[in-house]
Amino acid sequence: MIAFAGIDLGGTKSEAQLFDANWNLVERQRVPTPQTYDDLVATLAGQVTWCLDASGRAIPVGVGAAGLMDAKGLAFTANLPATGKPFRQDISKAAGHPITYINDCRALALSEAAFGAGQGYSTVMSLILGTGIGGGIAYDGRLRSGPTHLGGEFGHIPASAATVAQHKLPIHECGCGRFGCVETYIAGPGLARMAQDLFDHDLSAVHIGEGKDDPSVAQQVWQIWLDLTADLLLSIVQSIDPSIIVLGGGLSKIPNVEEDLTRRIEEKQLKGFAVPNIVRASGGDASGARGAALAAAQEAGYV
Q1: Lower CB density within 10 Å: C or N end of the chain?
Q2: Under 8 Å between Cβ of 73 and 82
Q3: Domain coordinates in residue numbering, the chain
Q4: Is the pLDDT of residue 235 over 80?
């Protein structure tokens, strides 16, 4: 019997997934992501209806997507045509069923804490390393949000000034409108831009990852990336003291990235203090939807 539903909304596709009471994936539906707001709302409402029809009853439905929802319920997104819109309310109204909206990075933290690499840990931090940078923190299997819902926007923490100066890095404007956010250096596009800025080489993040262990420009860029990413993680570790750090996103697939980061953080950590385990997410492409479904189930009081 279908008990929960989650929708993983990305810039190019939206995937609805249905789960039974034991959180096994039962069925999924994938559709292209529309590029206008009205079409986007209609498509999401259609997927919510599909979830309800498949279950034959009212069940919790969560939607996970990149971006934020402010205290007034208005969306702020970079890759969806929903900024400034009451996205959650409009989907719920069009579907005739309330939905839970959650940032995709928070959904990863929740899913990995309950079902993945973070099982058994009290404080699970997720960090998505992709075209953008973001994360989430699950305490005892649940997310906690403050009044601004900005917790986990790690990509918009300023990059370490000391490391930027050490490597003579230029300061770029971030998509958020500020300058010097760590995302402008350590996200996939930022990694490629460092190769261009410092060495006048056109290298993709993939090529840098492939060449990181050989004497090359790629290796030099990778070492700078490790410094900046380790600085970010260390500042978070010293702030919230997570039990485990779970990596997701395209850059997390670079071979041995977790070992490389662990060694670099150990070099920078206060003497005598351990570094938390750093691992890859284990939930695969179901993590986003499963985390959104779990957020909805928790909000509705099912778990």
Answers
A1: N
A2: no
A3: 2-104+284-299, 117-280
A4: yes
For 88-98, what is the mean pLDDT? 97
Q: Residue 137 has which token pair?
A: 């923190």
Q: What is the mean pLDDT of the chain?
A: 95
The band of 74, judged by pLDDT with boundaries at 50, 70 and 90, is confident
Structure tokens at 144: 């906690």
Q: What number of CA atoms fall less than 13 Å from residue 30's CA on the CB side?
A: 6
89 contacts 82 by C-beta, under 8 angstroms: no
Contact, 27 vs 5, CB < 8 A? no
- In the structure, what pLDDT confidence band is assigned to residue 203 with cuts at 50, 70 and 90? very high
Predicted local distance difference test score (pLDDT) of residue 146:
83
User: Which own/partner pairs from 23-26 qualify as long-range (CB within 8 Å, at least 24 positions apart)?
Assistant: 23/114, 23/115, 23/290, 23/294, 25/286, 25/290, 26/2
Nearest Cα residue to 224 out of 190, 253, 266: 190
Q: How far apart are the first and last CA of the chain?
A: 17
Is the domain defined by 2-104+284-299 classed in CATH 3.30.420.40? yes
Cα–Cα distance measured from residue 198 to residue 180, given in angstroms and rounded to the nearest whole number: 16
Q: Do domains 2-104+284-299 and 117-280 have the same CATH topology?
A: yes
pLDDT recorded at residue 237? 96
Q: What is the mean pLDDT of residues 34-38?
A: 96
